[in-house]
Design a protein that fits this description.
The protein is an alpha+beta fold and 391 residues long. The chain folds into three domains: 131 residues, no CATH class; 131 residues, Immunoglobulins (Immunoglobulin-like, Sandwich); 118 residues, no CATH class. 49% of the residues lie in helices and 21% in strands. It has 13 helices and ten strands. Helix 1 runs antiparallel to helix 2, helix 9 packs antiparallel against helix 10 and helix 10 packs antiparallel against helix 11. The chain starts with a helix and ends with a helix.
C-alpha cells in the first residue's frame, strides 16, 4: 500500500500546493527520523513562508518569485523521489534507517536546478548527493573593498565597500572606484548584510566615521554600499580590519549572524612638513626663559597659532627631531578644530584632546633649547609619543 503522506505530497506538488507538499514531507520525515532531509524540508518551508511575506511587503520581481518557487519545488520533488525509493528498498539490510538518522547535515545553501537521482549508487551516497546538491552555490555574491594605501595626517580619506548579487555587471559594480586601491572577491550573501571597519584591539591610530548603518538590506537590482571617512591620528603604518557578516534564519534557531569575510589592509600615514609650515617665515629667535614663559602664557590664552609659528621658526633651524614632533601636533590641532566645527565631537572629547595637545606643546617647549643627554631625550620622546598617540 502506498505511503499516505508521500502520496499527498506528490499530489500537492502536481497541483501547485507547495506548502501542503512540504507539510506532508515534514510529517513523514519526522516519523521516520530522517533528520538530515527533515532539516532541508524545514529550510524550504521557512523560505516559502518568507517568500509569501516578501510578496506582500516588498517589490519582488516576478522572475525572482518564480526562481525561488522553482528551487523549492525541484528540491522537494528530489527528496520525495528518494523517500519513494526508500519505500521500495527498505527491506535491504545495508540501507537502514539508523544510518540516515545519524547523519550530520552540512550548512544549507541552495541551487537553481537539481540533478537527476543517480540510480547506480548506494542509498547513503544518494542521500549525501542530494543534500550536497540542495546546498550548492545559489546565494553567491561579489564584494569590492576600496581603501587607500597611503594618506596624509591632516587629510580625510574614504573607504568604500560594495556587495552585490553575482549576476550584477562588473562595470556597474566598479563604477567610480579606483582599481589601484580596490580589492575584490566572492562571498556568501543573504538578504541582510553587515559590514564593519575597525582596528585591532587596543589600537587607536584612526578616527573611523561610518556613513551608513552597519546592517543593510542587500539591493537585488544593483549593489549595496558602505562608506567610511578615515582620519589618521598618528604617523606610521597601521593595519585596518574589514569584517563582513551575513544574517541567516535557521529553522527552530531563529536569526543568526555568520562572519564570512575578514580582510586586513595597511595604511601608511605621513606628514608633509613643507606643506604644514610653508607660510611661516623663518626667523632666528633668541631662546631663553623669558621666551619660553611667553609661549606657555600663549598656550594658556589659547593662542596656539603664535606658539606653532614661533616654535617652527626655532626648531626648523636647530632641532629637526623636535620640529617633526611639532608638525604632528599642529596637524592634530588643525584636525581637531575641523571635526569640532563639523559637529563630529562632543564637548567632553574635544576638551580632552585639546588638553592633550596643550600638554604636549608644554613638554616640547621644556625640551627645546635645553641641553639634554641621551637618557633625557629617551624620556622626553616616550612622554610626548604617548601624548601624541592619545591626542
Amino acid at each position: 500500500m502506498a505511503n499516505h503522506h508521500l502520496h499527498t505530497a506528490r499530489t500537492a506538488l502536481l497541483q501547485g500546493d507547495i506548502l501542503q507538499a512540504l507539510s506532508s514531507l515534514e510529517i513523514e520525515l519526522r516519523a521516520k527520523g530522517y533528520e538530515p532531509l527533515l532539516q532541508v524540508i524545514l529550510m524550504f518551508k521557512e523560505e516559502y513562508q518568507k517568500l509569501d511575506h516578501d510578496i506582500q511587503s516588498t517589490a519582488l520581481l516576478p522572475s525572482d518569485i518564480e526562481k525561488i518557487k522553482n528551487k523549492i519545488v525541484h528540491g522537494s520533488q528530489h527528496i520525495l523521489s528518494i523517500l519513494e525509493e526508500i519505500e521500495k528498498e527498505k527491506n535491504e539490510p545495508e540501507e537502514t534507517i539508523d544510518d540516515v538518522g545519524s547523519m550530520v547535515i552540512p550548512e544549507i545553501k541552495y541551487p537553481e536546478a537539481l540533478p537527476e537521482i543517480p540510480v547506480n549508487k548506494s542509498f547513503l551516497t544518494r542521500i549525501l548527493d542530494t543534500i550536497s546538491s540542495v546546498l550548492t552555490d545559489e546565494k553567491t555574491g561579489k564584494i569590492l573593498y576600496e581603501s587607500p594605501s597611503k594618506m596624509r595626517l591632516n587629510q580625510s580619506e574614504q573607504v568604500s565597500v560594495r556587495i552585490s548579487h553575482k549576476s550584477l555587471k562588473e562595470e556597474v559594480l566598479k563604477k567610480g572606484l579606483d582599481a589601484a586601491k580596490t580589492k575584490e572577491g566572492e562571498l556568501e550573501i543573504s538578504d541582510v548584510m553587515e559590514v564593519a571597519l575597525f582596528e585591532a584591539a587596543g589600537q587607536q591610530n584612526f578616527h573611523i566615521f561610518p556613513l551608513n548603518n552597519a546592517e543593510q538590506l542587500l539591493n537585488k537590482k544593483s549593489y549595496t554600499e558602505w562608506r567610511f571617512i578615515l582620519n589618521a591620528k598618528r604617523v606610521g603604518k597601521f593595519p585596518l580590519i574589514l569584517r563582513v557578516s551575513m544574517k541567516v534564519h535557521l529553522p527552530e534557531l531563529g536569526e543568526k549572524k555568520k562572519d564570512i569575510v575578514t580582510w586586513g589592509s595597511s595604511i601608511e600615514v605621513d606628514v608633509d612638513s613643507e606643506v604644514q609650515m610653508e607660510n611661516i617665515p623663518i626667523q632666528n629667535i633668541q631662546w631663553d626663559n623669558t621666551f619660553k614663559k611667553r609661549l606657555k602664557e600663549q598656550i594658556a590664552n589659547n593662542d596656539f597659532g603664535s606658539v606653532f609659528q614661533d616654535l617652527a621658526n626655532h626648531l626648523s633651524i636647530r632641532d629637526t627631531e623636535l620640529f617633526n614632533d611639532l608638525v604632528v601636533l599642529q596637524t592634530r590641532f588643525n584636525h581637531l578644530k575641523n571635526v569640532n566645527l563639523m559637529g563630529m565631537l562632543n564637548h567632553q572629547d574635544y576638551s580632552i584632546d585639546y588638553s592633550r595637545i596643550a600638554n604636549s606643546l608644554i613638554r616640547l617647549i621644556d625640551e627645546a633649547g635645553s641641553p639634554r643627554d641621551e637618557n633625557g631625550l629617551k624620556t622626553y620622546k616616550s612622554q610626548i609619543a604617548g601624548l601624541i598617540s592619545n591626542s
